[in-house]
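Reviewers of the previous submission asked for a worked example of the structure-prediction workflow described in the proposal, so we include one complete record here. The input consisted solely of the amino acid sequence. No template or homolog information was supplied to the procedure at any stage.
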Amino acid sequence: MHLVPADRAHRTPIDDHRPCEAIAAIGDPARVAAWARRFDLLSDPGRLTLLLAIDSAGPISVTDLATASGMSDTAVSRALRLLRTAGLVEPERDGRIVRYRLADPAIRPLLAAAAS
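From that input alone, the workflow returned the following structure tokens.
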């Protein structure tokens, strides 16, 4: 049981190899926390709607996202601010127009699964 931390080594395993396999699968706790934050962002129907729209039609403006999603421009802007802060989307300025595109390709498979 080489992967079991010292503070948990006193526990008697049922299957000697299973705890190590599970620890290896869990991996870095910081990575798990980062994915949990992504899932938290995806748990909101409005934000998920915007990400699906951006993934398929991006780069796309706030106004066009509001039209597509049925949300107000203000609600779209608020949601995009959260998604931008989390690194999931990034703005692209074209004069006065700002369009958004996906910045984190790791969420594409999740969006594809949600869209199907």
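The chain has a mean pLDDT of 90. We consider this example representative of the routine output the project will generate in years two and three.
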